[in-house]
UniProtKB/TrEMBL annotation:
One of its GO terms (molecular function) is ADP binding. Pfam families: LRR_14 (PF23598), NB-ARC (PF00931), Rx_N (PF18052), WHD_DRP (PF23559). Residues 440-511 form the Disease resistance protein winged helix domain. This is Disease resistance protein RPM1-like. The lineage of its organism: Eukaryota, Viridiplantae, Streptophyta, Embryophyta, Tracheophyta. Transmembrane segments: none annotated. Keywords: Coiled coil, Leucine-rich repeat, Nucleotide-binding, Plant defense, Repeat. Coiled coil: none annotated. Residues 20-101 form the Disease resistance N-terminal domain. Residues 183-350 form the NB-ARC domain. Residues 556-878 form the Disease resistance R13L4/SHOC-2-like LRR domain. Belongs to the disease resistance NB-LRR family. One of its GO terms (biological process) is plant-type hypersensitive response.
């Protein structure tokens, strides 16, 4: 609840810590008297807001649903936004005041902004007065820290109604999860002497309680235990009450009363339960466990007596499920489409024969079920509501079109929003803002982990820990925590197994969007929203941008455009109103030049012009001194101005185009010229893709924070300087090097091993046709193009036990490749192409035991299908391009038995460009560069063919 305060307090702390007033020096003496007390006032405000934040964190858990508290909290949020506006306005005015472009321009800005400077003390005075009134209102309306457990008792009835409903569900109404129930039953009945902890994990509303209830009430299972109990922990459980409830269920309540359970302390209650269970086989269910702390004392209460006892936990959190052994964790998934439909019909058409959906409602019913995305709670609740609605198409159509509104306003759907809100309310402040930000993306949008991490950092949501850990690494920790809380669903992982993209469940996104809008955090326009309130702090335009004629908000911090169909004139006009922006994302926008107002956005941290028609970046970019991310991928920019090197806060610079989408040519990526002294960019962590020159490669060594680097057009004459610079980058993990042409020979023998390198792509001939021993065991992805190797290279890196992707394209001039037993245990993808003399591939039994994808391309001299492919039992896909006719004939005939276990085999000829383009390279580009690469590649291909 206090996330707005959390963000603004971090901003105030940074402002005071940087000595903002000292930076101005004598440049703005005209307003020096105005600013004399500015820093003192901000320190006072910081202290007040810190106390407010502490107070809110203590009372918010007990005040859920308290309208007076919610209204007061809304006032606190407004005050925190006002403070943030003051800080950002100050930063904006300061940047203009110290603009070094010219003396006359500085003076012009100082005179022009004099009135704005004068407003700052007035605004601070108003904020101080509002903070004082907040304290008065808090006292007036009795908003205070709740003593004892009164708050939890107020909270309990609703929680019990939700959990009781799931617990009391008739087993005949349960649909799906047949396998999970069978496994759970098996675990409860197995003859295992030691106490077993079992966890059922999943997001809110998946049916964890329902499934657990079905086995708990099973009489066959109950008869195998001496005693059993079921308790719901919830977020506000009281330890003593929980222990008393367990005792009351285990033994007769009259007996427990007589033994003085009501007055026992926590320790005595634990001892009483332990004593009772000491010689018994028991089954206890802990429903809705939110943290590990609960288990600290329950672990002592539940005796480990080797009687075959079982403890079942249901939880939304992965860290809680880790209390059980891995083999005793069931992670629930959403229902399949057929199961969702069956469950919905059981509820919505319970009065009809066989629960059949009327034909006139089928299309709308299926749309409603699809919106539930297999979430049982939503399906049951919505189906039950619709069961007493009229059987008319227009009524169901209206309900579907108003579903987002219904979630926010219909009391009958409170269960859905309440269950999902529990997860959101459990988030700490530093995570809550990050999660709310995810709701700005369109429905079913696959959000990239790296992209959203950079946006969080730009917005100020991610803390600087200062122990050598980057904010990007902290953001990754945030992401991991959100997934472990079952709030985000990982949809794709990279070669290293780290999450690449994720989705928000539609209903989770709907509920989160409602909260983001209500709290003025942000709005997704075109997502059921028809207007934008002036208080909105963030705006994503998902569709219908042309209909947005008026936008009064000047407080925007993020502007993200997903609607690519708007004219450039609309973009230029609307941007002129948002001078305090921190994030500007115009990906796919129809613009050919940088809008002039952009270089006046002094607070900008994140700027995305990727997939646009931009060809030039103006020198005035030097003003964007706070810029952290500049994304120009798939634009027409081929040279950056020297002023880019003045952006000393830049962390990520992406500027490249893919000329060859098949990546079979040496210069498949564009070379971007970066003049000037790159030494100034000391915060740079990622740089893609720059054209090498002698001066630049020697300067690269100053960029010691570099994690990812792509450099092309490398000459051997200055390769030594490049190798020396690379060794000055201790954290370098991704590296792409391309020679200036196919005849240039690169000598890597003086390149020292790069211990943290996980991805290496080298395009160019190697000295002597020999691969040097520079690769560490940490390498996961290796791509060698046109290397001219004379000796079988496979044995040179067989020691790379962590390698998951290997690509050799024109890299080897020999006739035979050998893959021996126990080599490449983690390899998942193997690509071999354009090796003219290769006529034999030996694959021994026991090698590449996890290979999923095999690509063979342009191996014209390979006549027979490698016999060892039959040993690759995990192989799912095999792509063949430009292989000899004899190879294909044997594959389809006499050698077919070798590949009969592979379910997906595709054979292409490069002349069939449509098939290759659509089925191989577009999916590859989408995976590597994002969905925009598909549009770009299709456009380029269409224009070249016209």
């Amino acid at each position: 609840m206090a996330d707005a305060l959390f963000v603004v307090l971090r901003k105030v702390g940074l402002f005071l810590g940087e000595g903002a007033l000292e930076r101005i020096g004598t440049e703005i003496v005209e307003v020096a008297s105005i600013l004399t007390n500015f820093e003192h006032s901000m320190k006072q405000i910081q202290g007040e807001l810190s106390i407010l934040q502490a107070f809110i964190s203590q009372v918010s858990a007990h005040k859920d649903g308290d309208k007076a508290f919610d209204a007061w909290l809304d006032q606190v949020r407004d005050v925190s936004h006002e403070v943030e506006d003051i800080i950002d306005e100050y930063a904006y005015l300061t940047a203009q005041a110290v603009d070094t472009s010219s003396f006359f321009k500085r003076k012009f800005h100082q005179i022009k902004n004099f009135a704005s400077w004068q407003k700052l003390p007035i605004q601070i005075t108003q904020v101080e007065a509002r903070i004082q009134r907040l304290a008065e209102m808090r006292n007036r309306y009795g908003i205070s820290i709740v003593e004892d457990d009164k708050g939890s008792k107020l909270q309990q009835p609703n929680q019990l109604r939700m959990s009781d409903s799931a617990y009391l569900t008739d087993n005949s109404e349960t649909v799906g999860n047949v396998d999970e129930i069978a496994i759970l039953t098996q675990w409860l009945l197995e003859e295992k002497q030691e106490r077993t902890i079992i966890a059922i994990l999943g997001m809110g509303g998946l049916g964890k309680t329902t499934i657990t209830s079905s086995v708990y009430k099973n009489q066959k299972i109950r008869r195998t235990f001496d005693c059993y109990a079921w308790v719901t922990l919830s977020q506000t459980y009281q330890a003593e009450e929980l222990l008393r409830e367990i005792i009351n269920q285990l033994i007769d309540q009259r007996t427990s009363m007589a033994s003085g359970v009501v007055t026992m302390s926590r320790v005595r209650l634990v001892e009483a339960i332990q004593s009772y269970l000491q010689d018994k086989k028991y089954m206890i269910v802990l429903d809705d466990v939110w943290d590990k702390d609960a288990w600290l004392f329950l672990n002592y209460a539940f005796a480990r007596n080797n009687c075959g006892s079982k403890v079942l936990m249901t939880t939304r959190r992965k860290d809680v499920s880790s209390l059980a052994a891995d083999s005793y964790v069931i992670e629930l998934r959403t229902l399949r489409d057929a199961e969702s439909w069956e469950l919905f019909c059981k509820k919505a058409f319970r009065l009809s024969t066989n629960n059949v959906c009327p034909e006139n409602l089928t299309s709308w019913a299926k749309k409603i079920v699809a919106r539930c995305q297999g979430l049982p709670l939503a399906i049951v609740t919505i189906g039950s509501i619709l069961s007493y609605r009229e059987i008319e198409e227009h009524a169901w159509k209206f309900f579907y079109n108003q579903l987002s509104w219904q979630l926010a306003n219909n009391p009958e759907l409170n269960w859905i929003s309440n269950v999902l809100n529990l997860s959101l309310n459990d988030l700490p402040s530093y995570l809550r803002s990050c999660f709310l930000y995810c709701s700005l993306y369109p429905e079913d949008y696959k959000i990239k982990r790296k992209l959203i991490s950079r946006l969080w950092i730009a917005e100020g949501f991610v803390e600087e820990r200062g122990d050598g850990t980057t904010m990007e690494e902290v953001a990754e920790y945030y992401f991991r925590e959100l997934t472990q809380r079952s709030l985000l669903q990982v949809t794709e992982r990279n070669a290293c197994g780290r999450p690449r993209t994720f989705l928000m469940h539609d209903l989770v996104r709907d509920v989160t969007s409602i909260i983001a809008k209500r709290e003025k955090f942000g709005i997704g326009y075109g997502d059921g929203t028809t207007h934008v309130a002036h208080e909105a702090r963030r705006l994503s335009i998902q569709r219908g941008a042309k209909s947005l004629h008026s936008l009064a908000s000047t407080r925007l911090r993020s502007f993200i455009l997903f609607d690519a169909g708007v004219p450039s004139s609309w973009i230029y006009d609307i941007l002129s109103r948002f001078r305090l922006l921190r994030v500007l994302c115009l990906r796919f926008a129809d613009i050919e030049e940088v809008p002039g107002v952009v270089t006046e956005l002094y607070n900008l941290r994140y700027l995305d012009f990727s997939h646009t028609k931009l060809k030039k970046i103006p020198a005035s970019f030097r003003k964007l001194v706070n810029l952290q991310v500049l994304d120009l991928r798939f634009s027409g920019v081929e040279e950056l101005p020297v002023e880019i090197t003045m952006l000393t806060n830049l962390r990520h610079l992406f500027v490249f185009t893919v000329h060859d989408i098949q990546e079979i040519s040496l210069n498949c990526l564009s070379a971007t010229k970066l003049p000037g002294n790159i030494c100034y960019l000391k915060n740079l962590q990622a740089l893609y893709t720059i054209s090498a020159n002698k001066k630049l490669v020697s300067q690269l060594g100053n960029l010691t924070l570099m994690r990812s680097l792509a450099i092309v057009e490398v000459h051997q004459s200055y390769a030594a300087e490049l190798w020396n610079s690379l060794t000055e980058m201790p954290n370098l993990s991704r590296l792409f090097i391309s020679a200036c042409d196919v005849n240039e020979i690169l000598d890597l023998n003086t390149l020292k091993p790069l211990p943290n390198l996980t991805f290496f792509w080298l395009a160019g001939k190697l000295e002597g046709g020999v691969l040097p021993s520079i690769f560490s065991e940490n390498l996961m992805q290796l791509k060698l193009d046109w290397s001219g190797l004379r000796k079988d290279p496979i044995s040179s890196f067989c020691h790379m036990l962590n390698l998951v992707e290997l690509c050799l394209l024109g890299a080897y001039a020999g006739e035979q490749l050998s893959f021996c037993t126990r080599w490449f245990p983690k390899l998942k993808s193997l690509q071999l192409g354009d090796m003219d003399h290769l006529n034999w591939i030996e694959i021994e039994d026991g090698t590449m035991m996890n290979l999923h994808l095999l690509e063979l391309a342009g191996l014209r001299n390979l006549k027979a299908v490698p016999v060892g492919i039959k040993y690759l039992k995990t192989l799912h896909q095999m792509f063949l391009t430009d292989m000899s006719n004899e190879f294909i004939e044997r594959l389809q005939g006499s050698d077919n038995h070798i590949v009969q276990h592979i379910p997906d085999i595709h054979n292409f000829d490069s002349s069939d460009s449509q098939a290759v383009h659509n089925l191989i390279f577009l999916p590859y580009l989408a995976k590597k560069f994002g969905p925009g690469a598909i549009n770009y590649a299709s456009t380029k291909r269409g224009s070249s063919g016209s």
